[in-house]
Every structure is written in structure tokens, then in C-alpha cells.
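Example for tutorial group B:
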């Protein structure tokens, strides 16, 4: 067993930011337990393509301020040219242009993982990989954290596991029934998403005065966007795959996606240099076996997450717990900041 003052479960934005804030406050007696073999959680940049969290908006003030503090640059999502709206398989597609004066979504230079890498830099020696938490047991003035590899004894525990997944852990004593019900019905952001990224030598769609945006609920791809890098030296398209294709083989799904995009963007779609997919429903650190897709805006930031449990020793954090833009990167940042404040206040 290893005894520490703080245990943070999860090395996504929330967990890493809380760790950084503890460090800034002079608290270095903590560990981060990560179930995956990588940091970042649902922030995942693969070959320059964000197949996890991608965009943020100007009104996401906490994230914007954090990027500024960490000296991480951002840039506007490319949207020049005609976009495609596919609203009926029996009718021609509708082409439209976005209002150039409207606020643009923004992306992080180098991919969203740039934020993760900077946050992890000062706490990298605190991270335990492939460490899956199984049980939390209150024992006098501590919590015993049982994992697949070790036992840890902590004065305080901050869990950033998505609430729905956190209900699968064993708790001794049991959590309050009201809390368990809220956790179980809280949708896990990204859990039902299938993302696709396709790279090319040139941005052929731009040469056709196309933005790269394709929107429609009836095709294999329900959303697609230009995902070229900030310096316009790497060119990609990235989007969300229709969940109806989840049960098909990867080969058939890829074939249908390319055929669909060829119809609206051109035959050059076949000249890709890289093709990747990520089905988050198959990621057991994000999703669960009994997946419920949510098509309306899910509710996040329930009041039950504003308090601590296990006699002020256990706090639930993460973007789903945030009443401020829950389900966004902004919510993850806000929850990470709040968790540090709450847990340090409870320590005094």
C-alpha cells in the first residue's frame, strides 16, 4: 500500500488541471491514477486529427484563459467556401455559405492534445498508467483506493471518471441513493460518438470553393469539417459517423463513407493518405456495454456534484459534473478548477 494526501482518478483535462492547481498551491503529495496507457482521456489527437474533443468557442472563458496562461495558441475553424446540407436522399444537396462575420469555432494549434501535454509536463512523474480503480473504501479518516495493480491510502480522492462509469465501482459504505441515481442517468459525453479522420496531400475541396463541411442526418457521415492544421501544411477532413453503421464491418463502413463523400466533395476523396476511425462506444474508459445514445442536449452539472462525500473526503469532478458548459472542454476546465478549490478548502 502507498499512502498519499490526494489521489486523483483520471488524467484528462479535469484531473491534470486539478493536479496543477494543487502543485501551484504547494501541495505535491498526490498521485494520478490513469486506467489507460496514455494521458488525455477523451482528448485524443491521432496523426494530427482530433478524434476526441476538438472545438471551443469564444465564450468559453475558462478554457480561453487557461490557453493564454499556458501560452498555447488557437485558430479559427476553416469555413470559407460552400458547405453542403444533405436533407433528403431523393433531392439534390443544398449548398450554402456561412456568415463570415459570425463568431467562429476555434481549435488548438497542434491539436487538443497540446493542452494535455502542457498540463502533464509538471506532474508526469505522478501518473500511474494502466491503473484501473475497482473500489473506494472509507476507513477512519482516509479512503482506501483498490486498483487492479495496487492499493492506495489517501486523505482525499477526486474522481474524474464519467459519473455513469463511476457507478460501476464498489463503494464502502454505499453512496447515497440520490447520488447513485443521478450518476447513472448522467450521459457520458463522447460515449456514443464514432469519429472519422481522412488526410490528403492537398485540400482539394478548397480548390473547388468548398469549405469541407457536410451536414446531414441521413448519410453515413452526419457531420464533416475541414481539419487542416493551423499552418496549412497538413490537410484533413474530420467528422462524425452515423451510429447506424456501428454494427457493420470496418471495411464496409469505410466504403460507404468514402462513396458518400465522393458524391458531395468529388472523386479526390479516394486519394487519401491516411484514414482513421475511433468508436468511443468501444472504449471501456469512456463508455459502457449498455449504451444509450442521446440526441437532445443532455443535462450536466447536477447539484449533487457540488458537495463532497465520505465525510468530505471524496469529490466527483469532470465535464459531466460542471453546471458551466458541461460536456465541453470548457466544462472540463471549470470542473478541474472547482475541484482544486473545494478539495483544498476541505483540507484546511
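The residue assignment follows.
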Amino acid at each position: 500500500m502507498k499512502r498519499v494526501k490526494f489521489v486523483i482518478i483520471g488524467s484528462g483535462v479535469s484531473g491534470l488541471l486539478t493536479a496543477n492547481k494543487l502543485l501551484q498551491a504547494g501541495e505535491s503529495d498526490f498521485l494520478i491514477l490513469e486506467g489507460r496507457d496514455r494521458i488525455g482521456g477523451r482528448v485524443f489527437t491521432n496523426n494530427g486529427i482530433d478524434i476526441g474533443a476538438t472545438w471551443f468557442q469564444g465564450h468559453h472563458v475558462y478554457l480561453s484563459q487557461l490557453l493564454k496562461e499556458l501560452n498555447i495558441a488557437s485558430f479559427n475553424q476553416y469555413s470559407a467556401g460552400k458547405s453542403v446540407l444533405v436533407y433528403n436522399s431523393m433531392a439534390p444537396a443544398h449548398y450554402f455559405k456561412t456568415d463570415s462575420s459570425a463568431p467562429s469555432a476555434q481549435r488548438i494549434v497542434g491539436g487538443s492534445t497540446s493542452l494535455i501535454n502542457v498540463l502533464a509536463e509538471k506532474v508526469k512523474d505522478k501518473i500511474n498508467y494502466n491503473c484501473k480503480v475497482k473500489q473506494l473504501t472509507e476507513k477512519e479518516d482516509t479512503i482506501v483506493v483498490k486498483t487492479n495493480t495496487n492499493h492506495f491510502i489517501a486523505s482525499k480522492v477526486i474522481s474524474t471518471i464519467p459519473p455513469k462509469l463511476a457507478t460501476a465501482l464498489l463503494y464502502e459504505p454505499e453512496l447515497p441513493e440520490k447520488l447513485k441515481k443521478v450518476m447513472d442517468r448522467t450521459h457520458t459525453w463522447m460515449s456514443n460518438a464514432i469519429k472519422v479522420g481522412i488526410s490528403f496531400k492537398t485540400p482539394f475541396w478548397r480548390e473547388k470553393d468548398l469549405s469541407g463541411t457536410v451536414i446531414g442526418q441521413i448519410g453515413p457521415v452526419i457531420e464533416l469539417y475541414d481539419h487542416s492544421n493551423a499552418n496549412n501544411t497538413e490537410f484533413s477532413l474530420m467528422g462524425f459517423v452515423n451510429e447506424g453503421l456501428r454494427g457493420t464491418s470496418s471495411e464496409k463502413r469505410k466504403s460507404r463513407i468514402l462513396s458518400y463523400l465522393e458524391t458531395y466533395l468529388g472523386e479526390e476523396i479516394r486519394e487519401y493518405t491516411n484514414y482513421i476511425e475511433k468508436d468511443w462506444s468501444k472504449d471501456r474508459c469512456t463508455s459502457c456495454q449498455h449504451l444509450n445514445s442521446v440526441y437532445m442536449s443532455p443535462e450536466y452539472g447536477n447539484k449533487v456534484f457540488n458537495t463532497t462525500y465520505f465525510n468530505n473526503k471524496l469529490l466527483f469532478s469532470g465535464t459531466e459534473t460542471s453546471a458551466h458548459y458541461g460536456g465541453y472542454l470548457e466544462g472540463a476546465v471549470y470542473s478541474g478548477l472547482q475541484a482544486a478549490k473545494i478539495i483544498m478548502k476541505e483540507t484546511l
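Residues 329-347 form the longest helix (19 residues). Compare this with the pattern of hydrophobic and polar residues in the output above.
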